[in-house]
Design brief:
Blueprint lengths: L3 E9 L5 E7 L2 E6 L6 E6 L4 E3 L2 E6 L18 H14 L2 H17 L2 E9 L6 H13 L4 E7 L10 H11 L3 E2 L9 H18 L2 E6 L9 H11 L6 E5 L8 H13 L3 E3 L2 H7 L15 H6 L23 H11 L5 H10 L2 H6 L15 E4 L4 H7 L3 E6 L2 E5 L24
Parallel strand pairs: 1-4, 6-7, 7-8, 8-9, 9-10, 10-11, 11-12
Antiparallel strand pairs: 1-2, 2-3, 5-13, 13-14, 14-15
The structure holds fe (ii) ion.
The site of fe (ii) ion has 5 residues, from loops.
């Protein structure tokens, strides 16, 4: 009998080590030099990058792949997107939402994206969104970890049943407490919503992930409140602030006080560069703000920052494929993270950092961890970002869930005979 179920030979790990990986059941049984071992399936990964799976810490799966229904977002703003989604969620059936989400999960898996945190709108009293996403979470469980956030899209206080519906969603089995303080009626109500939602999370022992300060308003201060409540309730290391775009426009002195507070509270940050580069700054003339939060400055303070996808073909964003390399690629540009060290960090942000933000169990390439990983047609993480390369094989929980033939593009240029090489340097 073979020693391993799957044996991946000679792959390059993100840290540059070359190693074989042997899986048994759903676990990585061995990693290192496994030459001479036998396996049910052997994959030659010499010259290829073998990475732990991509993780998306911020998505909206109830809205995904609905672009154009019932109409498109003509202004391109966050607020028109919210209005449009308000119309759509009343006409979308549970079956449609499940169907769209499962299609997206297929896309995700083929791209090596094996864990997703999705916000689920808890505004409508029928909670069809929650019913649909709980069903999707169950159906994809064998191959994709879906973490759901109770998200009061129209406001915890601003919509009549906002508070009650968040509680109902959590009772139904939603995993994480969400919020949207900048969309409440006043700054005071936004502040109060942060307090109430963090208390709810503390009582139930849940993680928190709030859409926070997703505006261009330099005076939006909800991240400060979130850090305060995190410390007051002992939730350190369990709270994330998503977007934080106001920080782009805040006064520098204020930010110099804010970032250490966030670091003390061990709050993580989830910017969503594809979306925020198109949604923010829409009210500006010129100069036009980029609206991405202060990524490098937060990292310099020791704050965990992970790139999120947010939207794919929905009321807020017309494009997207589910590829976390696209997300990191955009983030790298907008945040100007172009040194080799910063580019490698961008790759970590869509893998290891995001996994830590989600508190994923068994994540990583080491003996005893879950047998989930991706073989990429690139020599190293920077090359993977540059090429947004093919995923040659995706293994999830010990099973090969996606494979793609290597595309060896052949160049035949006049005067350069024999220019036939793989696109990455290791080839
Ligand atoms: Fe979002």
């Amino acid at each position: 009998m073979a020693e391993f179920d799957i044996l991946v030979t000679g792959g390059t790990l993100p840290d540059g080590r070359v190693a074989d990986i042997g899986t048994k059941g759903t676990t990585i049984a061995a990693i290192g030099d496994l030459s001479g071992s036998s396996a049910g399936r052997v994959i030659d990964a010499a010259g290829d990058l073998v990475s732990p799976p991509f993780v998306d810490p911020h998505f909206h799966m109830d809205a995904t792949l609905s672009y154009g229904t019932p109409r498109i977002n003509a202004s391109g703003t966050l607020l028109e997107g919210i209005d449009l989604w308000g119309e759509l969620r009343e006409i979308a059936t549970v079956e449609e939402m499940v169907d769209r989400a499962l299609t997206y999960c297929d896309w995700a898996v083929s791209l090596g994206l094996l864990a997703i945190r999705s916000h689920v709108d808890t505004t409508p009293d029928h909670l069809n969104t929650v019913t649909a996403m709980l069903e999707v979470r169950e159906r994809v469980k064998p191959y994709l970890d879906l973490q759901l956030v109770a998200f009061p899209q129209d406001g915890f206080f601003r919509s009549k049943t906002g508070a009650e519906n968040v509680r109902r969603a959590l009772d139904m089995g939603v995993d994480v407490v969400g919020g949207i303080p900048h969309f409440e009626r006043t700054m005071e109500e936004g502040r109060a919503s942060v307090r109430a939602l963090c208390e709810m999370a503390a009582e139930r022992g849940l993680l928190v992930d709030m859409h926070c300060d997703e505006t261009d308003d330099p005076m939006s201060r909800h991240i400060e409140a979130l850090a305060y409540e995190t410390q007051r309730l002992g939730l350190e290391g369990r709270v994330a602030g998503s977007h934080l775009t106001s920080m782009h426009s805040m006064d520098n002195y204020y930010v110099s006080k804010l970032l250490p507070l966030m670091a003390e509270a061990q709050i993580s940050a989830i910017p969503n560069p594809l979306i925020n580069i198109v949604l923010q700054g829409r009210h500006d003339t010129y100069p036009k703000r980029r609206g991405l939060t202060r990524v490098k400055e937060m990292q310099a303070q020791g704050i965990a920052v992970g790139w999120g996808q947010d939207c794919v073909r929905d009321p807020w964003y017309s494009l997207g494929t589910g590829d976390m390399l696209d997300v990191a690629f955009m983030g790298l540009h907008v945040a100007q993270m172009t040194s080799p060290e910063e580019m490698r960090r961008c790759f970590e942000m869509v893998t290891e950092v995001n996994a830590a933000i989600l508190h994923l169990d068994g994540y990583g390439l080491a003996e005893g961890k879950t047998a989930s990983f991706v073989i990429l047609d690139a020599g190293d993480p920077v090359e993977a970002l540059r090429l947004r390369c093919d995923r040659l094989a995706v293994v999830s929980k010990g099973k090969i869930v996606s494979e793609k033939a290597r595309n060896d593009s052949r160049l035949s240029l006049v005067g350069r005979p024999g220019t036939v090489r793989r696109r990455h340097s290791a080839g």
